[in-house]
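Dear Dr. V.,

Thank you for agreeing to look over these. As mentioned in my earlier message, I'm a first-year student in the group and I'm still getting used to reading structure tokens, so any feedback on how I've presented them would be very welcome. I ran two proteins. I've put each sequence directly above its structure. The first is here:
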Amino acid sequence: MLNNQLFKQVAAKLSGFYLCLFIIGSLSSQLFLVLFVGTFLLFIFNLKQFHKLVYWVWQNPQKKHQANNSSWDNIYYGVDSIQRGNRRRRRQLINNLGEFRQGADALPDGVVMYNQFNNILWCNSQARELLGLKWPMDQGQRLDNLIRYPQFSEYLAAREYDQVILIPSPVDEDILLENRIIEYGQDQYLLVSRDVTRLNQLEEMRREFVANVSHELKTPLTVLQGYLELFDEAESPNNSSNKAVKAMRQQTTRMQSMVEQLLALSKLEFSNMASKHTMVNMHEQLDMLESDAISLIGERDMTISFDVEQGLDLYGDEAQIYSACANLVTNAVRYCPDGSSIQVSWNHHPHGAQFMVKDNGPGIEPIHVNRLTERFYRIEQSRSSSSGGTGLGLAIVKHVLKNHQSNLTIKSTLGKGCRFSFIINNERIVSFINKNKQKDDMS
């Protein structure tokens, strides 16, 4: 190995040098003086070589060292090899960094890197264009000082980045930005800002179109229903005419139900739950729902039971909550065959309160479960039509729960039944809020 060879070379040279000193000292009878002078000269020589090495490393490391057949040549060679490797790695890192920045600049989204103190570390060209950042002048500046929106500052301070936040661009308020923060490394964060102005405009146009069309359809459908009622009053001896009028009345009623649900869905999409914070008496709501469900079952061979925990009320929109619960119960009644049993419950949950509708019906195939909340999605067209379904009920439930910071959970086993449930978190449960308020008052 190199270390052993170097040690042997140095040991051999030192042994030869001191052997010569010993011989000279013995011949001159001045052994101590000769050894001292020789050692001193050796020290001066090595000190000079050390000085040259330090000067070469710090002042001119790229200049090739001229070998002088000393032990120091190995040190020069080792240092030079390390420096060449470092320069090579440095060039590679610089090239990689340049490629990374070129790639980041090519992204259609704005990217900002910052630390735990919200100080900007780096940003790409799209971030400079969308967020009005200046590089490198804004390096080290606080992100919340440059993007001055209260909701954005609260979003940064909360450190809960599982949701995105929409804010206008600081450069142009007509540009809507969707911002998502990703945590990476040690106390480092990545802000990804995307221009969703066009998508938002298209979504607004779609909502307005659905709302307008639904509203315009309501009047002609009402007129059609009125004239069909006149046909009902005028008894016709023609059985085929009666059959046609009955079919038209059924389809008109179904279309009117669909229009009403579309209007309700559009209203939900335009609603802002941030301004609504009223107490909902869930016991009264579910009492009314139980009466409606029993009426809907009628003479069918089906049982339904309600398990409602007393005093478990929430803050939210009363009409929306009733609509979501009613849709889930109505779907169970409509799509379960005779002989089925349905269990409805509203009880405490570790994260808040849970509403659940469970049945022992035919169940749903797994391929359909993830698509049930899509608009107009039906498992079986014929079954939905015969039961009066429009394919909008679960879409309404989805939007209601979104307005209440909740999600619909669907579990189904084919041949064994379904379970539809959602959890209202503790921040909306009245008893939980009052309990925390009492603790704050006592402290």
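The second protein is here, in the same arrangement:
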Amino acid sequence: MELAFAEETDELVVPAMEIRKSDRLEYLKYDIRGPIYEKSLELESQGYKIISLNIGNPATFGFDAPDEIVHDIILNIRNAQGYSDSRGLFAARKAVMHHTQNIGLPGIEINDIYIGNGVSELIMLSMQALLNEGDEVLVPSPDYPLWTASVAFCGGKPVHYVCDEAADWNPDLADLERKITARTRAIVVINPNNPTGAVYSKDVLEGISRLAERYKLIVFSDEIYDRIVYDDAVHYPIAKMISDTLCITMGGLSKNYRAAGFRGGWMILSGARHRAKSYIEGLTLLASMRLCANVPTQYAIQTALGGYQSINDLVMPAGRLHKQMMLAYNRMTAIPGITCVKPRGALYIFPKIDLSQFNLVNDDDFVLNLLTEQKVLVVAGNGFNYISNDHFRIVCLPTVDELTVALDRIENFLESRRK
């Protein structure tokens, strides 16, 4: 921008210009709340009722947080008026530490645990403390897009490794290893997986662990859905398999305890912490700069982890979540031209459209026209950084009756586009 002085008054003249967003935001996207979502808000403002299957927000669909969690927050609200330790309340971190002991992860101490305003804040904090310009992080494809966005925002380069649909969406270890370079700093694991519903096999997780140890890479394991598994699926914490490199496991209240709006999350440092002293100093510094995580919610963590695990009732075959997941899976796979790997965890299904059977250009075309014609909002597969343009994600949180209406509309739309 060139500045000039007015000849008569000698006043500095600043030309009019647009106030632009930061260049670091130019290539970031978060399609779960992106342009299609904005279009749905526009339609709602015109009086249309939209069935929103785009965001995994349990409270919207009548999944309340357990009463004892709400009770403990209310009971301790006066104690929550001041800042806490920047890592989190002692009682909250102690509860997470006891949780690690219960799942067989030994040697975790209080200062290995950080409390955050949900896992989302901790993802960003962990990337800010790690990455220099051009550093690479291996992220699954498809992924929860906040991981890709956070790596890019912090100056890193997200490199997507393939999760194989033909192998129940388990990571392709050969593809992962091929993509390791001298600039690679970390591997991200999302298990159970959003958006695919995959629960990774023990063999695959051990394979990732050995690669991480061989190349001295940090493992970031997003396990926010660790208790939401169905039928015979077993969730294996990858931290139990790692000793010779640093592992950071993330969990929280949002999904297992249906308390997304409380913004309560934690990360657990395990493995070769002695090799990461500088990085851990960076984590602590950044945690201190945000002063602390919200204190009222921290009073819920001990109750949540130590109390009755009501999520188990919801995921059993007679439970509400299980019924809804299986309804969505069965209805979608009954449509000719639609295939889907059966979900084994989390809250979503990720169907594939055979575009050769429908008058549809790609997943974006499907999502936009489904919204405008049938008033059902889902997310295109490319919003999860998937390499193909023929998938979409359905959130399976509505009741069976509500979900049936949405699935009827999706089926009707697809039939209207059938070649």
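From my reading of the second output: The two ends are 54 Å apart (CA to CA). The CA atoms of residues 31 and 383 lie 5 Å apart. Does that match how you would interpret it?

Kind regards,
E.
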